[in-house]
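Notes from hallway chat w/ T.B., transcribed later so I don't forget. T.B. wanted the structure written out for a chain they're using in a teaching module, and asked if we could keep both sequence and structure tokens in one place. Agreed to drop them here.
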Amino acid sequence: MGPGTDPSRVIKGKKLPGQMGNTRKTIRNVEVVKVDPERNLLFLKGGVPGSRNSYVLITK
């Protein structure tokens, strides 16, 4: 985790594991390529956060 005898503590800002997720993320510059209203689909170009079969909120 940190140095052994000197300074005998964990230095501030040390990268440690923690919870990743369970928060709302905003991703910009995702392009809507195509809309298929018959099958209720949106085709996006860019990275979409979240796992499969999860909800995505699209705003302007």
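Follow-up for T.B.: The chain has a mean pLDDT of 85. Might be a good example for the class.
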